[in-house]
Description:
This protein is mainly alpha-helical. Helices cover 85% and strands 0% of the residues.
Amino acid sequence: MLNAQEVRGQWDKLRGKVKEKWGQLTDDDLMIVGGNVDELVGRIHEKTGVARETIEHFIAELASRSSSTLNQAREAAMHFAEDASGRMREGAQRMRAGYEQVSDQMHERYDQMSERVREYPGQSVMAVFGLGVITGIALGLLLRSSSSDS
């Protein structure tokens, strides 16, 4: 009926409920000395006059409720963790698919540009040369304007 190990493991949580039920008990009365739950029940019996079986039943009921609450919390946390893990896997798969799509598009564009350069080498060289000249002029103007501001 009374699982002493379960009571010892949860005693800090159960102590307040016992003291609430039997207010005449002191903190010293509610100490489990050396893990001896029978001694605790005996002290409560001496102070309150309540039958040992009633005290044991009350403490066992508290321990059982507390234990089931802990199990429910543990199960809820496990469910939450599993759900979060599944969502993270889905997100990673979507990211991988998006990366592969972008990578494929980049390879396709690179292949198209390579083909155009092979088809029109002269025009390609002139386009790159013109782009270089424009970039050089823009940088020169930018540098000149930043040095005149100083």
